[in-house]
Amino acid sequence: MSDSRAxxxxxxxxxxVESYKAWEAGDADGMVxxxxxxxxxxxxxxxxxxxxxxxxxxxxxxxxxxxGSSTYNKQLSxxxxxxxxxxxxxxxxxxxxxxxxxxxxxxxxFAAAGTDWCLKAVAANGQPGFAAYRRGGGGYELxxxxxxxxxxxxxxxxxxxxxxxxxxxxxxxxxxxxxxASNDDT
Length: 186
Hints:
By secondary structure, the protein is of the alpha+beta class.
């Protein structure tokens, strides 16, 4: 890092912008251009433990479920930790290109996390949705809250939330028993 925080912020922004551009182009090499050889990417259900493994996985994804996808990115904060480190916190989402690619993504989710899920119906601002609980620990553990935007043509957006604050605002149980009931249901 430099002696100027303004220069450091600009450099960090440039790395993020290049990463977003690489995603839009489906460019796996560009996605990892700024990664170190021993970089690690941790995602739900998987660990990618080198730049090359990350690149290979991104290349496969860009040819499959992420083909034609784009991302939504909004930086929420940038905090420096000493002279040589910073944490950038962003709100991000993947915008899939059509139902076929979303189906491929769900195939990947099921391969990584199994197919034994329990869904509980919810509604948000008049839109339908569900809380998805995946099998774990002798019951089901809260994984995501998904809310659909529905148009005359069908579902036009699936907004997925994994934040505990969002779960709490819906009064969702953190876990369900093996039959899919929460302690509140008994």
